[in-house]
Amino acid sequence: MKIFLVLLCTIVGIWAQENKKLIAEEQMLEHIHDECQADPATNADHELLHNLAANIDNPQVGAHMLCESTKVGLQKPNGELDIPTIKEKIGLSVPDANRVEFLVKECAIKKNTPEKTAINLFMCLDKNGVTYFHEF
Predict the structure, then answer these.
(1) In Å, what is the CA distance from 42 to each residue of 27, 59, 87, 119?
(2) Is-contact 30 8, C-beta < 8 A?
(3) Per DSSP, which regions of 1-136 are E strands?
(4) What sign does the CA torsion over 51, 29, 95, 7 have?
(5) Could you tell me which of 5, 58, 12 has the C-alpha nearest to residue 46?
């Protein structure tokens, strides 16, 4: 019984630590979103952001999503995808390493522009249930 209790406490401790990382990351995402919204060059109407698929060609939506993607580290300043960071961020809410690899191959795909790359990355991850990015 004592071994079970120790094991349970260990599992709860690990879960709480991981949960703290995710909470801190979500707070950072909220800050990044606010920074991008505060800049007139990257500000976008929330209604447009909530329907990315219908607004994929909207320049303000593209600028905003690239701003967020770059600030969180998913894309480098030159617009290229940062695969190690993408894996790390997906891993915050997806514990299965094989699933993380699948999602990176499925979603981290360079498009015609850095803005479209950012939008498609977020749409694909959202479609696949990656909850880490719901703050965006």
Answers:
(1) 20, 9, 25, 13
(2) no
(3) none
(4) negative
(5) 58
pLDDT tens for the 136 residues of the chain, in order: 444 344 334 444 444 455 556 566 667 778 888 899 999 999 999 899 888 889 999 999 999 999 999 999 999 999 999 999 999 999 988 999 999 999 999 999 999 999 999 999 999 999 998 866 554 4
Contact between 96 and 25 under an 8 Å Cβ cutoff? The reply is no
Q: Per the structure, how many domains does the chain have? A: 1
pLDDT at 32: 87
CATH code of 31's domain? 1.10.238.20
User: What is the CB neighbour count within 10 angstroms for residue 1?
Assistant: 5
Sole residue written with tokens 């120790």: 6
Count of alpha carbons within 13 angstroms of residue 109, beta-carbon side: 10
Range of the domain at 94: 2-135
